[in-house]
Amino acid sequence: MELDTNVGGTDRLLRGLGAVLLSIVAVRALTAGKRTSGLLAAIGAVGLGFNATTCFCGLNAALGIDSTEE
Predict the structure, then answer these.
(1) Nearest C-alpha neighbor of 15 from the set 41, 45, 43
(2) Structural contact between residues 65 and 5, judged by C-beta atoms closer than 8 angstroms
(3) What are the TM regions of this chain, as residue ranges (predicted)?
(4) By C-alpha distance, which of 45, 47, 48 is closest to 26?
(5) pTM for the full model?
């Protein structure tokens, strides 16, 4: 299965930064004993990290949004 790229440039950079920030939030929440908040932040970090590394976003595809420079 091949994914068409629809995330690029600044959008990709912001998603990568969001993944890093959410990872930090997840670790802090989990070490503080807030398991639900930590798990939700970790899931968000994985999702944004996937978008940033593969340059594909399912929601962008469903909405017809393409942020790649042509």
Answers:
(1) 45
(2) no
(3) 12-31, 38-63
(4) 45
(5) 0.88
